[in-house]
């Protein structure tokens, strides 16, 4: 597998500092197992959030929402559906290509789908938070509060891992 210059880049070969001595198949199996464990964490939260979002439209309060809030709700549901698709995509991908001896490629594509799912999850959470806080408070500070949460998500999900990647890895 070649370095992709992205989230798919290899962690280093068997040479160098603490590299693993594994075959390409072993590496693909390990990376697949790790990826599936990561997806399970995200999928659970997404499924709960999406299920909740689907019920909101059937509540009596929904009809009382302003058109803007209804539009935000629709965007949130669509984002939730897209997130669900991206995070379940790797499972379908694996099932369709299983036994075709292309696991290392499946891992790369599954990783890309998972990353897209995380970005969509970020957007879904932000949209849902924005809607809930707008309905709950109707205050002008809501966009600022949501912006602070977005910044926190970006730090936790992307900036800190990218900093660690640059800080603790070499150009192997």
From TrEMBL:
Chain segments annotated as transmembrane: 39-59, 71-93, 113-135, 141-160
Region Disordered, annotated ranges: 1-24
Keyword Transit peptide: no
Pfam families attached to this UniProt entry: DUF6328 (PF19853)
Domain of life of the source: Bacteria
Ranges in a coiled coil: none
Keywords: Membrane, Transmembrane, Transmembrane helix
Protein name (database record): Integral membrane protein
Annotated organism of origin: Streptomyces solincola
